[in-house]
Design goal:
Chains A, B: Homodimer. Chains A, B: One of its GO terms (cellular component) is aminoacyl-tRNA synthetase multienzyme complex. Chains A, B: GO terms for molecular function: ATP binding; proline-tRNA ligase activity. Chains A, B: This is Proline--tRNA ligase. Two copies of one chain form a homodimer. The first copy, chain A, has 14 helices and 27 strands. By secondary structure, chain A is α+β, with helices and mostly antiparallel strands. Chain A has three domains: 210 residues, BirA Bifunctional Protein, domain 2 (2-Layer Sandwich); 97 residues, Rossmann fold, CATH 3.40.50; 70 residues, C-terminal domain of ProRS (Translation Initiation Factor IF3). Chain A starts with 11 loop residues before the first helix and ends with a strand. Chain A is globular and about 80 Å long. Bound molecules: zinc ion (2 copies). One zinc ion binds next to α12 of chain B.
Chain lengths: 492, 492
């Protein structure tokens, strides 16, 4: 398979699809809409998981595990939630296969093994979890409950794309229960902030924090907070959501507690999640026409060392230097791979690691042995320089921070250049068509207008940003009064 | 809920069920046969996962993720494997629910959303993975592939017990592909050895390594190696299996490679797994009538500190000492919890941590402040002693090793006392009835005899141990010649 990618400027979508497959991140499977996450892709996801898990635990959350299946009668209980997910549910109806009497090499569903009640493969776990919490909560002493689960979920999607939209995906879902509205709202905000911090510090991906309009809210939520990122093609990507669920699930599942004052009250809830979709966001934020570009904080291999040699003897000499360097780098907390395979040429290796986004490549040839140098290439800028062997560790340590910052700054500038204030609908359409990105515009606050704009332009309201100032204006479509600009964009 | 458990001697099975629930490890869910793993139980599972994952990676394995669903035609492909799992499969037949026209608050399966081909919820992933490997393997250069996945699987069980047998469970499944039979056999053995090392060093649970008879083999395997442990009630528990799959899956999925010599050959395969069943094994190996007993290597909290005080002032003084101790212990790599909640009394806390198996409990009261001491209680022996505050860290560090060893030794002695050599079938039945444990006996090597013995006694051949010597004898049932003793037992 050629390593050459379609250029982003030619066909962004094709570039993405090719990159995901060629960089060995993921591929489509034999199951419609479900992906195989390959070892290299999974290693990046594991780094994301480890960091998020740490941040969840540091803020008092614990992991647990709830069933994959939701009995239909529980799934139905919270009406809006059920309505929102019913159209895309995988449903288990039978619990046995049997040999096909017409063809002994085949299996058929055994009609005698029909379930009394169908089981929904979880598209999200509020229903099964709140049905469980019901038995855990009697008194204010049992609150708060702050649980997270790492799990697979299934939402039957008609159009799928690797990482961005798949029928099965991996995610974490936090589900918390609180005695007061205030505490639940604070948790909702805290988790949205943790997602933002993760996105910015680890993914080097700037995000805008805000709340969703009613039409874009999670089914069953009172408020949905979100972080929104900007991809290189000018489309937005929702990277994480945190929901204030009010007492909706407590009411649906009859979860009450006795307060300190002895009153029986409904419990307040939140839920929040990020998924393997973040992989898509990470790829699209930084990568270039040569392949993946990874921020050092999430790169499974931060430094690769490639020997350039003729014959065993030379390899041996180079390996001495390389192994010493690798050891020193490891000691400094850097993940290193020394690739001394003789089955591939250096040129092939260079192309491979470039494609896979390894942040720093060190090459050592016979001349470097003489001069005590190595050639250092950084993946983000593609710049190369010769570095004294004794200075490599310091240089690389510095570069890990430097590159993380550089990638963030670049994405931050790009994102900021792609927020355009517009004050008329003609301008709105023009900017959306010619430039893309976020459009900051006044909106009259109605779902009707939001819907009309979506119908006319395919742009949706990504969020009502938390940090924007109140400003009087008139709706870009209807001219009706508005108090604040919101962010529109076409989105993944 | 009372914390008092049924005694093991009264009803071992009831003791286990109560312990799992009362120690907050897991509970049954609203979904038949599926469990909720509660935060405390999950924290232990996470410690197991982390250690196993480390051992897998150290031996060159990488994690990946494959789909939850297996299309029926792939599931069928390896005949024996399909046959083995067909009777206990959850089957997805539809991808949508719709509003019940007769009752708008209910949902029904949408008959128009019937899948063209049914999807089996994976009971194990050989089929979907080998169908994927097919595209990854062309040449010997693509081998070996050594992949592991952490996942949930579903096997529809009629009689379920928390952790030991549930319809959904969590596990890891390794799937490797090799160029030669020899290499695949070595991998099979390596992974069985890793399981044994994990069981003994981390779970403090002695195991016997061996191979399964044909009737007890994994469906589709040529050989199944296993580790077998002995529970306190004299029943055996299969704690992990590693399968040499020969070329069965390569043939079923047509996975061939070009060898170094340029010949087209079928790939050799292994698969291996351990599951949340290990939680059941851990609980039953060490726990007592007071509750859970955890080996320090797997305890989420290794030390708990409980203050014993009257009034705020005293608590403040005690907390100074407790926090200092907690910091010092943490620095020494010990996980500590200081439980200064005022909502529960010390007696309640003592009972709770005993029930939950925290290895070391430190209590600090006003007299300890005067004397500079703490009361140290170890969970395994229930022994208490006063320790000088300045000596706590050294004492605890030593105890972590000591208790790990003590637990292993105790289980090891118990296990060894429960291996009985018998040479007649009357003796076999007598030992099985009166003493239980492993019965080491000669067997004529036929599935027929094995089956008869199972029918007569409910004992199965747990394994043909690797470490046992060849010894001529005659089958305990048929009197036919035998070359080696095998281990029989009733099993979980
Ligand atoms: Zn700098
Ligand atoms: Zn000792």
């Amino acid at each position: 398979m050629s390593k050459k990618l379609t250029k982003r400027s030619e066909d962004y979508s094709k570039w993405y699809n090719e990159l995901v497959v060629k960089a060995d991140l993921a591929e489509n499977s034999a199951v419609r809409g479900c992906m195989v996450i390959k070892p290299y892709g999974f290693a990046i996801w594991e780094k994301m998981q480890a960091q998020l898990d740490k941040m969840f635990k540091e803020t008092g959350h614990q992991n647990a595990y709830f069933p994959l299946f939701v009995p239909k009668h529980l799934f139905e209980a919270e009406e809006k939630n059920a309505e929102g997910f019913a159209k895309e549910c995988a449903v288990v109806t039978h619990y046995r296969l049997k040999t096909d009497p017409n063809d002994k090499s085949k299996l058929i569903v055994d009609p005698e093994a029909k379930l009394e009640e169908e089981l929904v493969v979880r598209p999200t776990s509020e229903a099964i979890i709140w049905n469980t919490y019901k038995n855990w909560i009697q008194s204010y002493r049992d609150l708060p409950i702050k649980i997270n689960q790492w799990a697979n979920v299934v939402r039957w999607e008609m159009r799928t794309r690797l990482f961005l939209r798949t029928s099965e995906f991996l995610w974490q879902e936090g589900h918390t229960a609180h005695a007061t509205k205030q505490e639940a709202l604070e948790e909702t905000e805290l988790m949205n902030n943790i997602y933002a911090e993760f996105a910015e510090k680890f993914m080097a991906m700037p995000v805008i924090k805000g709340s969703k309009t009613e039409s874009e809210r999670f089914a069953g939520a009172v408020e949905t907070y979100c972080i929104e990122a900007m991809m290189q093609d000018g489309k937005a990507l929702q990277a994480g959501t945190s929901h204030f669920l009010g007492q909706n699930f407590a009411k649906a599942f009859d979860v009450k507690f006795t307060s300190k004052e002895g009153k029986l009250e409904n419990v307040w809830a939140t839920s929040w999640g990020v998924s393997t979709r973040l992989m898509g966001a990470l790829i699209m934020t930084h990568s270039d026409d040569n392949g993946l570009v990874l921020p050092p904080n999430l790169a499974p291999t931060q430094v690769v060392i490639v020997p350039i040699y003729k014959g065993e003897g030379q390899l041996e000499e180079i390996s001495k230097v390389a192994n010493k360097l690798a050891d020193d780098l490891k000691e400094a907390g850097i993940s290193v791979k020394y690739d001394d395979r003789d089955t591939q040429k250096p040129g092939w290796k260079f192309a491979q690691y470039e494609l896979q986004g390894v942040p720093v490549r060190l090459a050592i040839g016979p001349k470097d042995l003489e001069k005590g140098s190595v050639e250092l290439a950084r993946r983000d800028t593609l710049a190369k320089e010769f570095v004294n062997q004794t200075e490599v560790v310091e240089k690389v340590k510095h570069l890990m921070v430097e590159m993380q910052d550089t990638l963030f700054d670049k994405a931050f500038n790009f994102r900021n250049e792609h927020i355009t204030e517009v004050d008329s609908f003609d301008e709105f359409k023009k900017v959306l068509k010619e430039k893309g990105g976020f459009i900051s515009a006044h909106w009259d606050g109605t779902a009707e207008t939001e819907n009309k704009i979506k119908g006319l332009t395919k742009a949706t309201i990504r969020c009502i940003p938390f940090n924007s100032e109140k400003e009087s204006g008139s709706c870009v479509l209807t001219g009706k009064p508005s108090e604040q600009r919101v962010l529109f964009a076409k989105a993944y």
